[in-house]
Structure formats: structure tokens, C-alpha cells
Amino acid sequence: METKLAESSSEAIREEVRRRYGATARGESSSCGDECCTSTSAETLGYSTEQSAIAPEAANLGLGCGNPVAIASLQPAQTVLDLGSGAGFDCFLAARAVGPSGMVIGVDMTDDMLVKARENAQKNGFTNVEFRFGEIESLPVADESVDVIISNCVINLSPEKLRVFKEAYRVLKPGGRLAVADIVATAPLPDEVRGDWAAYTGCMAGASQVRELEQMLEAVGFQRVRIAPKDTSRSFIREWLPGSRIEDYLVSATIEAVKPTAARS
What we know:
7-stranded mixed β-sheet
């Protein structure tokens, strides 16, 4: 990218993210080579061997930073929404948890990812999963129609995170839950990282600090906000940008919040 990251519009940033993950879905090299959120094993991120066996192998692209399904407490017959669903790995795990009477909706803005996810669903007989094209800042989902929202290392990529949380609040039913794994900043990022396109599309430069995220969630109306950083994640984050000491500034965290039963409009 010739345009400086700090001078780019939200749409330009989304387009660069779309380009980078389209290349990943097609199996092509990206602007950040083999690192940047692409080489972390499921076991390292907290998935069990059983979970890895449940989901189609082609759905696991190693793009996450945690295991949101582990904190989602999913129940049969629930409707689950995955923000930035990629090739569908977490969607397929959620589909098994909610059962045939439940529904999982994956939303992604990258055509190549949607093609891959839909192929995975069809080939492996997942009939309670649907993949929709859309941006997480403007969800193609009806008001108050979702029980649980999950997401894995995606919200940090949005240049408009407050809009993401407003949309999440809108589509959740009263009493619905947000259960997310994402990258958060534990200290202000160096200028050279904040201005690096590869670091942004690699889930690093767009990370917000914990208090910023808490304030956004609370401003939207969420309650019982809980953000839990996982210091052990620094061991794999350092591999995303080798030699930069990026692990001194970033950590994976679980982000949980609840839409109150008497939700405000």
C-alpha cells in the first residue's frame, strides 16, 4: 500500500484486510509472509483434540488467537453469530454444540472465505450453518435474533470498533451474550507498528487497549463486561512479527459482555 495507514479511510482499510484474507483463503502468499495470525496451531490456541477432529480440516486456517467457543456456554437450540467467520472453523464447532434445532450464522466480507466455508459445510453435512456476506460494522442480521455472538481475532481488524459493538448489541436478544477472543494492547504500540499495513492486517496494529474496549462496550449498553488477558499468548504472538518484541505490547484476551434483559433502544 502506498497510502499511509493513518491517512486511509475505513473503507480503504477494510479493502486491504479483504485483499489479504482473500489471498489466505486461496492459499496464496500475503503481504506478511507466513506469520501474522496464520501459523498458530489449534492446540496452542486452546482447542481440544476432540474439537479439532469435529471441524473439517480445511476450515482451520490457523487465523485465530483463542477459542471463543470455550467461553460461549452454548446450549441446544440457540442461534449463534460468528463475526468474521473465515473458513468456518468456529461455526462448525458451534453447530455441534447447538444441535440440529439450533442455527449458526457466519458473517464474512471476503468472497473467497465464504466460498471455502460453504464448501466445507456442504462437503461435511453441516445443515444448521449459514454463511452470509457482510461487514461486521453493518451486519446482515435481524434485530434481536441472536442468542450468542462469537468472534476470533477479527474485531481488532475493524477501523470502526464502536460500530461493531453497536451492531452486536442490536442483533442480540435481550439477555444475549458476547463471547469473543481477540488481540488487545497492553501498552501504546510503537509508531512503526501502528503505521505498518502488514501489522494491521496481521491482527496487531489495530488492537485497542483494554480500557478503551471496556468503555466502548459500556457506552453501547452492555453489562457484565469482562476482559481477561492471557499472558501465555505472548509466546505465540512473538512469532507473528519476529524480532520486533511485539509481545511486549499485545496479548490475546477473552472479551465477554451481556445485553441486559430490559435492553435500552
